[in-house]
Design goal:
12 helices, about 280 residues, eight-stranded mixed beta sheet, alpha/beta
């Protein structure tokens, strides 16, 4: 099964668990706090107080990009992989009635949950779109800010995601996402296990590789700011259950996996200067 189908299936199941009163976390019988410390305490209670509980429970993110993206009234925002809609609803409120917030998701169950959360929250300047983050169904240069919450790491074609993000941003537009990033080398077997712990299916980029891919897509002013550093103790129980000697591998894991806020900017188009050379002026 392709990674896209695995992600679609698991996130669809997560949405259904939320609508039946359960947790969105990865295991079918997972307790509400199963994904701590990854998804715990990401949002200020003042931010979520007016949101439907299902929007909060459905969050599978690793950060709070809307708080760090410095959204301004009147801006147009796009959330890649919007899930249950928490970041879209928060963005809609931040940009106000003159602004717009889009959520893009490929999972029917998550889209249904997000639209119901929008109805309950009464946020009118929000629209949820069905589609893939590798093929964004919006026009070139139509968005001021792109946010995303621990979703780009799930894509099997991150270069295409970043090229699409660059395409739909306006000149001067901002890329402001939360994602899982790897710092340094980690043996493949251990990396697979830690990534499974972090988020069902993950393919986190190494920090320098993330920077390189953003630059290749055309972005500038690239920054990666750690927001949470995972320790071996955070994942001890899970890794031991995978048959790994946690104490032996600790030096290879400790501090290598982080949640980070990743910023970049689409450069302004160069000014069109009037040509005064004889060959131009006729």
């Amino acid at each position: 099964m392709e990674i896209k189908e695995i992600v679609k299936e698991r996130y669809g199941q997560a949405a259904l668990r939320v609508t039946t009163g359960g947790s969105s976390c990865c295991g079918a019988a997972a307790p509400v706090d199963c994904c701590d410390p990854i998804t715990a305490e990401l949002y200020d209670p003042n931010q979520t107080a007016e949101l439907p509980p299902d929007a909060v429970r459905a969050s599978l993110g690793c950060g709070n990009p809307t708080a760090l993206a410095e959204l301004k009234p009147g801006e147009t925002v796009l959330d890649l992989g919007s899930g249950g809609g928490i970041d879209v609803l928060l963005s809609g409120r931040r940009v106000g009635p003159a602004g717009k917030a889009y959520g893009l998701d490929m999972t029917d169950e998550m889209l249904a949950l997000a639209r119901e959360n929008q109805r309950k929250a009464g946020v009118a300047n929000v629209e949820f779109l069905k589609g893939e983050i590798e093929n964004i169904p919006l026009a070139d240069g139509s968005v001021d800010v792109i946010v995303s919450n621990c979703v780009i790491n799930l894509s099997g074609d991150k270069d295409k995601v970043l090229r699409e993000a660059f395409r739909v941003l306006k000149p001067g537009g901002r890329f402001a996402v939360s994602d899982v990033v790897v710092r340094g080398e980690v043996p493949a077997e251990i990396r697979r296990s830690v990534e499974l712990w972090i988020g069902c299916v993950a393919g986190a980029l190494e920090e320098s590789e993330y920077r390189s891919k953003l630059a290749a897509a055309g972005f500038e002013r690239i920054g990666i700011e750690p927001t949470r550093i995972y320790t071996v103790e955070d994942a001890r129980q899970f890794l031991a259950g995978q048959g790994l000697d946690v104490d032996r591998i600790a030096p290879q894991v400790e501090g290598k996996f982080i949640s980070a806020f990743i910023r970049a900017v689409k450069p302004l188009q160069p000014l069109q200067r009037e040509c005064c050379a004889p060959s131009c002026c006729g």
